[in-house]
Design goal:
single chain, alpha+beta, Aminopeptidase, seven-stranded mixed β-sheet, 4 helices, globular, binds coenzyme A
Length: about 160
């Protein structure tokens, strides 16, 4: 299998980031967004991620096959060294180690940036997502019942956390 490389995202990647993400908006509960992200909103998101909160791209054979990010967990200042991670892999490239490479890299970057802990908020139905976080050392610390409503049903959210 061709090598997976991880690099910081640039503005030129935003269309592909959105294309991958919007597949999950429309077809899954792994994001609670219900309408596709616009390119304008994606550009604002990119502009708001400064150096402490990297956005990364996974490439294989010159193609973007996934992306990851670290975001502020909460706007209040005292949460400053707590980050929330996202990882989205092109659905045509699942189970080839891309998610693992992206998440392991985000954990390394978070440590190097001096963050203290990473939190992942995961829809409880998303077995692949729960499994990948557990595989990389995250532990479930909370279950919030029926906090989401999508596709005509109530959804539970699991919080998983890794101390760095
Ligand atoms: C979750 C997701 C990122 C996994 O990416 P991936 O590239 O397919 O995963 P990998 O091949 O790197 O798998 C790494 C580990 O995750 C777990 N895993 C991944 N997919 C799984 C599945 N369908 N069922 C069970 N475990 C799974 C396994 O532990 C796997 O290790 P293994 O292959 O040695 O068994 C991908 O399914 C995805 O993009 N899902 C939609 C978005 C999402 O839910 N993101 C996470 C929330 S931020």
């Amino acid at each position: 299998m061709a090598a997976i490389t991880i690099r910081p995202a640039t503005a030129a990647d935003l269309d592909t980031i959105n294309e991958i993400y919007n597949h999950y908006v429309l077809h899954s509960t792994c994001t609670y967004q219900t309408e596709p992200e616009t390119i304008e909103a994606r550009q604002a998101w990119f502009a708001n991620h400064g150096p402490p909160h990297p956005i990364t791209i996974a490439e294989q054979s010159g193609h973007i096959v996934g992306w990851g990010s670290l975001s502020r967990f909460h706007a209040r200042a005292a949460y400053g060294r707590t980050v929330e991670n996202s990882v989205y892999v092109d659905p045509n490239h699942h189970r080839r180690g891309i998610g693992r490479a992206l998440l392991a890299d985000l954990i390394d970057r978070a440590r190097q940036l001096g963050h203290h802990t990473i939190i992942a908020g995961i829809d409880a139905e998303q077995t692949p997502s729960v499994a990948i976080h557990a595989a990389l050392g995250f532990e479930q610390v909370a279950l919030l019942k029926e906090v989401g409503f999508k596709f005509d049903r109530w959804l539970h959210v699991i919080y998983m956390q890794k101390m760095l």
